[in-house]
Fold Formyltetrahydrofolate deformylase.
Amino acid sequence: MTDSPFPQTSFILTLSCADQPGIVHAVAGALVNAGCNITESQQYGSPDTGTFFMRVAMSTAAARTALEAQLAPVATAFGMTWALHDDGAPARTLILASKAAHCLNDLLFQQRSGTLPIEIPAIVSNHTELADLAAFYGIPFHHIPVTPDTREAAEDALRAVIAEHNIELVVLARYMQILSDGLCSELVGRAINIHHSFLPSFKGARPYHQAHTRGVKLIGATAHYVTPALDEGPIIEQEVIRVDHARSAEQFVAIGRDVEGRTLTQAVQWHAEHRVLLDGGRTIVFN
Ligand SMILES: Nc1nc2c(c(=O)[nH]1)N[C@@H](CN(C=O)c1ccc(C(=O)N[C@@H](CCC(=O)O)C(=O)O)cc1)CN2
């Protein structure tokens, strides 16, 4: 910690640009010029895409505008896509769920416990079963039923909740409705889904029954960004657990619940801490 007499503010810088020599040196120089103390720094050059990625945590007595003034010319010189985030600012998160409670419950508990840097202004569901859980945590619950005839109106109602609460992140916590291409394009890189299989295996509905029929020895869960193509989005986190011949498909469902909850909550935490950057159809995770 610098022994500056002035109050320190913490920021997270994330950036990407075409990989080339001198990026780290230039960024570090700009941060020093802004009186920053770098507390954490990670970078990666992707050989496949030729793109360079960086995440830097820092503290400074300088104002955000002074920091941005130092960074802007460097960003221009290297053609960077960059963002400066307030470190620790909770991500305004809308949770979508259907009937299964376990993933929603894990997110609510971890948020209330202070381990998940998000705030949850609202919960949306296409069913009513989870209204009591939302009430238990004192969070407004919006029941938006979805049928083939009402899908568009339902999505417009969802957009209204997103706008009303200035939502930054949408989490699909076992939300069993397919989002339209239009909504997916509006939520690129800020909608995370939990799929209850070890992708790319067993996409779509009833993955545990697909896995049981196949006779797998490991089942798992995958947290990924939502894209129009079902269960094809960039993967953020995955976890697996061993099963055996003696387990029924219903037991797979039960065994998978904790894995799903942990996997989704971890992915949401990394996203909210600005540790996940998109590299085409893949992610870079600075954890
Ligand atoms: N555009 C996307 N939307 C959603 C995705 C996604 O990857 N892209 N993931 C799903 C979650 N999911 C699996 O993880 C999933 C959800 C629903 C279905 C499905 O077939 N739903 C049927 C209706 C089922 C019902 O009403 O119970 C449907 O929507 O017609 C498959 C996979 C969330 N959305």
Observations:
- Residues 172, 175-179, 184, 193, 195, 204-205, 226-228, 230-231, 233 surround LMY7XDAE (CB under 6 Å).
- The mean pLDDT is 97.
- The CA atoms of residues 68 and 84 lie 8 Å apart.
- The chain is about 35% helix and 30% strand.
